Each structure stands twice: as C-alpha cells, then as structure tokens.
Amino acid sequence: MIIKTKYHGETQIQEEQMIVFENGLPGFTDEKKFVILPLSEDSPFIVLQSVQTEELAFIVASPFIFFKDYGFDLDETTVELLEIESAEDVEVMAILTIEEPFEKSTANLIAPIVVNRKKMLAKQVTLHDSPYQTKHPIGGGAC
C-alpha cells in the first residue's frame, strides 16, 4: 500500500511493517497504525509515521544511544497487552524534540514507546516514580 508521509512523501509500505498501538498514543487515541521509516540512511534517528495521517510523524531513537544506563521495569498489564514473551522481542524508543542548535534537543524518557517487534504491537508507557523527565537533554549525553 502507498501512504503519504511527513518526511518521505508518498511511500510504499507492506502490511507487515505496520505497528499497532491498540489504544493509540496519548493525545492521538484514534491513531492506531504506524510504520517505522529511516530518517536518513546513516542516521540513528527514525520516523514513527502514522499510516492514516500524513502530518503525524515523530522523530524517535533508541534512548540507549544517549543514555547508556537508561532502564525501567514493564508492568504486567503492558507485558500482556503487547504479548511479550521474551526481552529479545522488545524495542524501546524515545520521542525526540529536535531543536536548533542540535545540542538543545531533548528525549522524552518518562514515556518511552515499547514495541514487540515479533508481534508488531506497541504502547507508549508512562513511567511512575521515575527519575526521568519528558525533556532530557541529549546533546551532552551522546557517546
């Protein structure tokens, strides 16, 4: 199928590339299907693009690129919802806010996106009692 995207124009995707957010994303409860597209060929940043809304796309990246010690425990409800059987099936992404200059860019570490890459199910999880914030500077934390 062909979808219209914010950063890549019209793009051909396959049904099996779609990630399903059963409950949508906070603030976008009607947006349930997304696809991951590379931002550019050699960039660690990727685009989480809505399948139905062209202008709805988030720049995301693995939080571990910038924060080596980042970690959290998933609650049992999320594990069941995402049908997670093994930690190897899980990918974690942080939504980034890109600023100029780049050193001012931030990552939302309090609400990571957890994806079961085997089942292509995802959820944005809100961490409670966490030392993390919605706007962690990434400029100084890159390795």
TrEMBL record:
UniProt-listed SUPFAM superfamilies: BH3618-like
> What keywords is this UniProt entry annotated with?
Bacterial flagellum biogenesis, Cell projection, Chaperone, Cilium, Cytoplasm, Flagellum, Translation regulation
**Main location group:** cytoplasm
- What are its GO cellular component terms? cytoplasm
- Keyword Chaperone among UniProt keywords: yes
Superkingdom to which the source organism belongs: Bacteria
Q: Which InterPro entries match?
A: Flagellar_assembly_factor_FliW (IPR003775), Flagellar_assmbl_FliW_dom_sf (IPR024046)
Q: Name one GO biological process term.
A: bacterial-type flagellum assembly
Its annotated compartments are:
Cytoplasm
NCBIfam families recorded? PRK13285.1-1 (NF009793)
Physiological role: Acts as an anti-CsrA protein, binds CsrA and prevents it from repressing translation of its target genes, one of which is flagellin. Binds to flagellin and participates in the assembly of the flagellum.
Query: Which family would the database say this protein is a member of?
Result: Belongs to the FliW family.
How does this chain assemble?
Answer: Interacts with translational regulator CsrA and flagellin(s).
Protein name in the entry: Flagellar assembly factor FliW
The record lists the organism as Bacillus swezeyi
